[in-house]
Design goal:
This protein has 11 helices and 12 strands. The chain is of the alpha/beta class and 370 residues long. The protein folds into 4 domains: 106 residues, Rossmann fold; 62 residues; 108 residues, 2-Layer Sandwich (Beta-Lactamase), CATH 3.30.450.20; 47 residues, no CATH class.
């Protein structure tokens, strides 16, 4: 259920807006507030999907300061305009986080389109935040497991050197730790791949097989160029990253690049790279972990498309609104009305600089200069 918070210090406008939303979204959970400070406190408490407020409330800094709160920074803001609002006030609203505007009297179709678009934006943002949190948790968990396994392995080796009578126990403990490490590696959602100093694959986890399709038997012992794995356009990028790490004594880095799968498909992965070097700065081995982020990139691309489509709808609505205002002017000639309308039409197009317009009416033609 979509949750909407309305903030307006005019009771009549508050009621009208509430009724309009109930008509287009009857299942929406609508909360109304008549003051900015109360609206700020309630927004932090309930985490609404959309906040709607009167444009004139943007003149104060109360809500702008409130939006600095981490809990509110990703909530879409919709401002309600009237015909007298000036451009400076709209700029002020944009500066404090406005995602969209809607004019009075409110058109229900426009209101439904705007609310659905803002809700999709909020849902997309929330999905990205959840994925990012999951990624951070997975990396933190994996790092903790590796550190813990390393500590246990070092302790086992220490015991082996310290006292010969504990040899059997130490070897057993070490074997257990290595088994745990192998278990966690093979059950991690991240693909774990290790290379020697010549770029030969020395380890290929179960998750690597699930993500890329090749089994360990098919790739261990092969060089990175011996099978179609790295996307051609990214090969120089990877070589450059390795050189950069060696030259700057970096032991770890993160890279995003494309990879082929066994079936020929291409996916985008986020790679976590760790290299071990000797005293001469030469690579001994490389440990890498890969996460398939293709779906996340697709979500981000869809978000950008929605924002672009929304901007185009706004341009069209602004054009219609401006044409309506031209028709309302008193004492103007048909020629001046047509000239003004024809110059408004190209503005509604996505590439307005390349657009032109032409109107034929009663045998006469009206067109833009270009």
């Amino acid at each position: 259920m979509i949750k909407i918070l309305i903030i307006d210090n005019n009771d009549s406008d508050l009621i009208d807006l509430n009724i309009s939303i109930e008509q287009v979204l009857p299942d929406a959970d609508i909360i109304t507030v008549d003051s900015l400070q109360n609206g700020c406190d309630i927004a932090i408490d309930i985490d609404p999907d959309i906040i709607i407020m009167d444009i004139y409330l943007a003149r104060t800094n109360v809500f702008g300061n409130c939006l600095k709160d981490e809990k509110l920074k990703d909530i879409p803001l919709l401002f309600v305009l009237d015909k007298n609002v000036d451009a400076l006030l709209k700029i002020k609203a944009i500066e404090i986080g406005a995602e969209a505007f809607i004019s009075k009297p409110i058109d229900k179709t426009e209101l439904l389109v705007v609310l659905n678009t803002l809700f999709k934006i909020k849902a997309s943002t929330r999905f990205q935040q959840q994925e990012q949190l999951l990624l951070e948790q997975l990396v933190e968990q994996r790092t903790h497991e590796l550190k813990q396994s390393k500590i246990e392995a070092e302790q086992a080796l220490h015991n082996l050197k310290k006292e010969n009578k504990l040899r059997n126990y130490t070897e057993s403990k070490l074997q257990s730790v290595l088994q745990q490490l192998q278990f966690h590696k093979n059950n991690s959602p991240l693909a774990v791949i290790e290379f020697d100093n010549k770029g030969i694959v020395t380890d290929w986890s179960n998750s690597a097989e699930k993500i890329f399709g090749w089994s360990a038997e098919e790739v261990v012992g092969k060089g990175i160029t011996d099978f179609k794995f790295v996307y051609e356009d990214d090969m120089n990028k990877i070589s450059g990253l390795t050189s950069h790490m060696i030259e700057n004594n970096l032991v770890n880095n993160i890279s995003i690049n494309k990879n082929y799968c066994k079936d020929g498909s291409v996916i985008t992965c986020q790679w976590y790279i760790s290299i071990l070097t000797n005293d001469k700065g030469e690579i001994v081995s490389a440990h890498t972990m890969a996460l398939d982020i293709s779906k996340r990139i697709k979500v981000e691309s869809e978000k950008e498309r929605l924002l672009s489509d929304y901007a185009e709808r706004i341009r069209e609505l602004n054009c219609i609104y401006s044409i309506t205002n031209v028709n309302k002017k008193q004492g103007t000639t048909l020629k001046s009305i047509m000239s003004e309308i024809i110059n408004l039409i190209p503005i509604s197009w996505r590439h307005s600089e390349d657009a032109c317009g032409k109107i034929e009416y009663n045998g006469k033609s009206y067109k833009t200069d270009n």
